[in-house]
Write a structure and sequence with these properties.
Blueprint (H helix, E strand, L loop, with lengths): L1 H28 L4 H13 L11 H63 L4 H5 L10 H13 L11 H10 L1 H8 L8 H18 L9 H32 L1 H9 L13
Helix pairs in contact: 1-2, 1-3, 2-3, 3-9, 5-9, 6-8, 7-8, 8-9, 9-10
Length: about 270
């Protein structure tokens, strides 16, 4: 996709340069005013044929031949590349839409519970959570404002408030599910979610090697707390992006996600 955009920029620059050269050239060799020179250029590049006016000098005819050879090819290249870019963007959007289904499955099975666990172990959860009570009245500006706060938040986890044995069992039970998600061929196209998934899978792997989490030294607990902080940071930002997507595309899913908000201590699936 990036290479297509680069190619399109190059072709556009070349096309505009040829157009400018043609206009100036016709003004000089054919002694035409700007508007007639522009008309000559458009007609030549468009290969629609000349009407009441046409090049009369040898230099003008030579310039017209040069513009036809260079300009028409460049113009067709711009059209072809722009069309390919548009089609690729549509295909990418379709693939990302399918990935949103994967993201939803992840939060249903793993992400929401992890967010609730880490938020409960946050040093000051109330200050953090008050901005995350998403509602139907939220606008794009609200999501952007809160996303900025999330990006700057210190996702510290007080590991002493985390039940490591329960977290270990929870993640090990869902390890196969996460492996299946990692095998999704379209996953690399969503780099942020890929990083999130790897961070959670790494935490699961770290915990899987510790048979007795209650007997870990402080140095190892600090290491695990850092792994949790990394996963927590990815989980929070991606959750907000997913909520924004649900609000725009799937109001009924958004309704349930609001009621199950992991940052709301009074969250309940029951419609009040």
């Amino acid at each position: 996709m990036a290479s297509l955009r680069f190619r399109l920029r190059i072709l556009l620059v070349a096309f505009l340069a040829i157009m400018l050269l043609s206009i100036v050239g016709f003004m000089v060799v054919e002694h035409l005013p700007f508007l007639d020179a522009l008309y000559f250029t458009i007609v030549t590049v468009g290969t629609v044929g000349y009407g009441d006016i046409h090049p009369v000098t040898a230099a003008g005819k030579a310039l017209a031949i040069l513009i036809i050879v260079m300009g028409v090819g460049t113009f067709l290249g711009v059209i072809a590349t722009a069309t390919e870019t548009m089609l690729n963007r549509r295909e990418l959007q379709a693939r990302l839409e399918k990935l949103n289904v994967v993201i939803g499955a992840f939060y249903s099975e793993v992400g929401t519970a992890l967010l609730r666990t880490f938020t409960n172990a946050s040093p000051n959860p109330d200050a953090f959570c008050s901005d995350l009570i998403v509602s139907n009245s939220w606008t794009d500006a609200d999501f952007a404002r809160v996303r900025g706060k999330l990006s700057a938040f210190d996702y510290k986890v007080e590991i002493g408030r985390v039940d490591l044995r329960a977290l270990r069992e929870f993640l090990l039970q869902r390890r196969g599910f996460m492996v299946n998600l990692l095998e999704n061929p379209t996953l690399p196209e969503h780099e942020a979610f890929t990083s999130l998934l790897w961070s959670v899978f790494h935490l699961a792997e770290e915990l899987s090697y510790r048979d007795n989490p209650a007997a870990l030294p402080d140095s190892d607990l600090a290491h695990l707390a850092h792994d949790m902080k990394r996963a927590y940071a990815f989980l929070g930002v991606q959750w907000l992006d997913y909520m924004k997507h649900l609000k725009e595309a799937y109001p009924y899913l958004f309704s349930l996600a609001m009621r199950m908000n992991p940052f709301d201590k009074d969250a309940s699936p029951v419609v009040q």
